[in-house]
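Researcher: Quick test of sequence recovery. Tokens follow.
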């Protein structure tokens, strides 16, 4: 690995950690406003304008993380790998900073609202942490294969497995809320203000995680493509 690549990776890590702190800071401000006695379900309904800003902030965060990956990478593999790494480091340090500053979460099994687009993603803190580690693993393999040969790109089979696994994981975070919303026949906002998660479908999550790890393994074992 060249010193220039190490330099870019070091700055990507620093940027991602800083983004994690920024995310944690925003969440602390929101909790002071809407959860002064501690975060818990059901969710407090935000003012419509604040809710829209929060949705746009989440979208902007993903764009920023993708942007740093595109800017830091010199090949398709590197760009995707750096996006995954930035996203994973950001997410992990988001929880690290929340724990350091406000003592939350109480444990890795504490429920959290993970994302809001296009519907609420809800699950234990441990689940996104596992996915973040998986993203870092895939990113490492992508960079390693790229250093061997820039033609070592993900094939349609690998992409299919990664997208399928990701879809299943996201389903594990959304299916209970969507089922509740359908049963109650409420608007999305009304359901958010009354939904309290009880059990998490770890079997569904692990099914998606196994597919993701299988994709990483198969790609890592793939024979290098000759130039």
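Model:
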């Amino acid at each position: 690995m060249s010193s220039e690549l190490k330099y870019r990776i070091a700055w990507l890590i620093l940027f991602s950690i800083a983004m994690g702190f920024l995310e944690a800071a925003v969440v602390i401000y929101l909790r002071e406003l809407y959860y002064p006695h501690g975060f818990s379900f059901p969710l407090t309904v935000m003012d419509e304008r604040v809710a829209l800003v929060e949705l746009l902030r989440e979208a902007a965060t993903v764009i920023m993380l993708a942007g740093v990956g595109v800017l830091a990478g010199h090949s398709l593999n590197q760009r995707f790998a750096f996006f995954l790494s930035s996203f994973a480091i950001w997410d992990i340090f988001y929880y690290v900073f929340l724990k350091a500053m406000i003592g939350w979460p109480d444990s890795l099994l504490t429920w959290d609202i993970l994302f809001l687009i296009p519907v609420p993603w809800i699950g234990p803190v441990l689940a996104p942490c596992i996915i973040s580690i998986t993203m870092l693993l895939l990113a490492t393999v992508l960079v390693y294969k790229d250093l061997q040969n820039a033609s070592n790109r993900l094939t349609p089979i690998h992409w299919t497995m990664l997208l399928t696994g990701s879809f299943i994981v996201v389903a594990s975070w959304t299916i209970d809320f969507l089922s509740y919303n359908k049963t109650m026949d409420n608007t999305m906002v009304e359901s958010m203000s009354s939904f309290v998660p009880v059990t998490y479908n770890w079997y569904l999550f692990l099914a998606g995680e196994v597919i993701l790890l299988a994709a990483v393994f198969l790609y890592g074992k793939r024979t290098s493509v000759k130039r």
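The chain has a mean pLDDT of 91.
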